[in-house]
Specification:
alpha/beta, Rossmann fold, 5 helices, 5 strands
Length: 146
C-alpha cells in the first residue's frame, strides 16, 4: 500500500506526466494517479472524484504545474479556493516549475501551497517529501522543498 491513496498530476506536458506518474508508482508514493492537462481539467476531475470526501480517488496530493495554457497553476488555485472540494484541509498542493527566476518564486509566496519542486522531479527529494507530507499533512512555508 502506498503512502497516499490518490495523487493528481496537473501538467500540460504529456511526457512530464508520464514520467511523474511512473515515478510516483515505482516509489510507492501513490496507489492511484489522476492526470489533468490543465487547471480546468483538474477542477473537473476533482469535482468527479471528490463528491464524497472519503472517496479513495479524491486526491490527497496535487502536483500542480505553474505555467500551462487555458488555466495555469495560479488561476487553478484561485478557482479551487472557491470550490467545495477545497473544504478538505488535508489536501496538499505542491507547485511544479522549471523556473527558479526570482519573479516566479516571489509569485508563489503566500499561495495556499505546501511548497514547490523543480521539474523534472528528482526521485530522492520527491519521494522523501511526498511521503513526509502524506504522513504529517503539514504546511511548509513556501520554500523549496528538501
Amino acid at each position: 500500500m502506498a503512502a497516499i491513496s490518490c495523487t493528481l498530476l496537473v501538467d500540460d506536458d504529456d511526457t512530464t506526466n508520464f514520467l511523474n506518474q511512473a515515478l510516483l508508482r515505482r516509489m510507492a508514493i501513490s496507489d492511484t494517479v489522476l492526470v489533468a492537462g490543465n487547471g480546468q481539467e483538474a477542477l473537473d476531475l476533482l469535482h468527479t472524484h471528490c463528491e464524497l470526501s472519503d472517496s479513495p480517488t479524491c486526491p490527497a496530493l496535487i502536483l500542480l504545474d505553474m505555467k500551462m495554457p487555458l488555466m495555469n497553476g495560479f488561476e487553478f488555485l484561485k478557482a479551487y479556493a472557491q470550490r467545495p472540494e477545497r473544504q478538505n484541509p488535508t489536501v496538499v498542493i505542491i507547485m511544479l516549475t522549471t523556473s527558479l527566476h526570482l519573479h516566479d518564486v516571489a509569485q508563489m509566496k503566500g499561495l495556499p501551497i505546501a511548497g514547490y519542486l523543480t521539474k523534472p522531479l528528482p526521485a530522492t527529494n520527491s519521494s522523501r517529501y511526498c511521503k513526509t507530507t502524506s504522513a504529517s499533512l503539514r504546511r511548509i512555508n513556501n520554500g523549496p522543498l528538501p
